Amino acid sequence: MKLGDGVEQAIHAVTMMAALPDDGVMPAADLAEFHGVSSSYLLKHLQSLSRAGLLQTLPGPRGGYRLARSPAEITLLDIVLAVEGPEPAFRCREIRQRGPNPLPQSMFTAPCGINAAMLRAERAYRDELRKVTVQALLDGLTAEDRTGDIAARGCAFLQARMRHSPPRS
Amino acid sequence: MKLGDGVEQAIHAVTMMAALPDDGVMPAADLAEFHGVSSSYLLKHLQSLSRAGLLQTLPGPRGGYRLARSPAEITLLDIVLAVEGPEPAFRCREIRQRGPNPLPQSMFTAPCGINAAMLRAERAYRDELRKVTVQALLDGLTAEDRTGDIAARGCAFLQARMRHSPPRS
Fold first, then answer.
1. A138 and chain B: CB distance < 8 Å anywhere?
2. Contact of B42 with A87, CB cutoff 8 Å
3. CA B46 to CA B57: how far, in whole Å?
4. Tens digits of per-residue pLDDT, B71-91?
5. Is the domain B5-87+133-164 a CATH 1.10.10.10 member?
6. Cβ-based contacts of B113 with chain A (< 8 Å)
7. How far apart are CA B101 and CA B115, in angstroms?
8. How far apart are the first and last CA of chain B?
9. In this predicted structure, what is the pLDDT of residue B55?
10. Do the Cβ atoms of A150 and B103 come within 8 Å?
């Protein structure tokens, strides 16, 4: 089981955007530069986050990305599902119905217990991700940063690269 | 996030082997035939299950596979980790340390809060899988099978294909 690298990039980018002032937007290329990742790869994930309603895209030379709602209203689950898609990790192929001497499909109305057990675990995973908001991540990153230097580096970069855009409608 | 198809196949194969009598073993080819899956692909997963200590491999013309311990002592987590490997789904690349104006590595002694949150969810997932034994799966499959026909088909196949091997040491 493996999540794509895009998940880590997306979470970090969203957390950085959570620190933007109200009129601030960040270009994708700058978000990529700060995180040392491929700009085209990150752009793909930013677009997925936009499609999922987590980011706003402001076009034009002063454009960029910003959160579409408050960081307290975006969870890790929202980000993971936006980047990885909504399907559960375990995808039942109903192999119980295959093989020699097949039985009529009507005998398999009860869901396969194996699938049900795997989906219970997926639910526990998602419940845990749903508990963590981007605001909590940002607060945690600040708390871990005893000297304040990590936050200062991020803030300086934001200040230097962010663009000022029309306030939210 | 996606688990390989091998996980479903491995769980079904292990659950079928849980129904073997004490001296019974099943050849990989028959397990594959019953589940309508590629024999070489299933074999790869059976070998992973053996390496993880979940199956015993009995070589020779009367050989095959059987569980290495009681079905009450094998969990879904054992099977998933044997097939997919022990790494968590989220693999932190420490991208917080990348980018321009890097800070000294010594400033990043606290684990990244994003990684920590993702690992908490992984733990919840694994805890849930650890709760489900192969014995419980087998009991559940029997309970779901109102007419008994699904179990009867499986048992008939086992009876026809299993081999009798020396008892466990």
1. no
2. no
3. 9
4. 999 999 999 999 999 999 999
5. yes
6. 137, 140-141, 144
7. 22
8. 41
9. 98
10. yes
Other beta carbons within 10 Å of B69? 14
Q: Which residues of chain B have pLDDT under 70?
A: 169
Q: What is the pLDDT of residue B169?
A: 67
Closest partner CB to B93 (pick from A5, A110, A150): A5
Q: Render each residue's pLDDT in chain A as its tens digit; 169 residues.
A: 789 889 999 999 999 999 999 999 999 999 999 999 999 999 999 999 999 999 999 998 889 999 999 999 999 999 999 999 999 999 999 999 898 888 888 888 888 999 999 999 999 999 999 999 999 999 998 888 888 899 899 999 999 999 998 877 6
The per-residue pLDDT for B138 is: 94
Q: Are A3 and B8 within 8 A, CB to CB?
A: no
Using CA atoms, how far apart are residues A78 and A53, in angstroms rounded to an integer?
A: 9
- List the domain boundaries for chain B: 5-87+133-164
Among B12, B95, B117, whose Cβ lies nearest the Cβ of A95?
B12
Report how far Cα B161 is from the mean position of its chain's Cα atoms: 22
Q: A107, B140: Cβ pair inside 8 Å?
A: no
In SS3 terms, B80-122 reads as HHHHHCCCCCCCCCCHHHCCCCCCCHHHHCCCCHHHHHHHHHH
Q: State both tokens at B123.
A: 């733990």
Q: Considering all CA atoms of chain B, what is the largest pairwise distance in Å, rounded to the nearest integer?
A: 69
Nearest CA in chain B to A130: B121
Tokens found for residue B161? 């294909």
Q: Which residue in B76, B93, B121 is closest to A117 by CB distance?
A: B76
Q: What are φ and ψ of residue B24, in 5° steps?
A: -90, 145
CB B56 within 8 A of CB B65: yes
- Contact check, Cβ <8 Å, B117/A93: no
Whether B7 and A90 have beta carbons less than 8 Å apart is answered as yes
d(CA B26, CA B64): 5
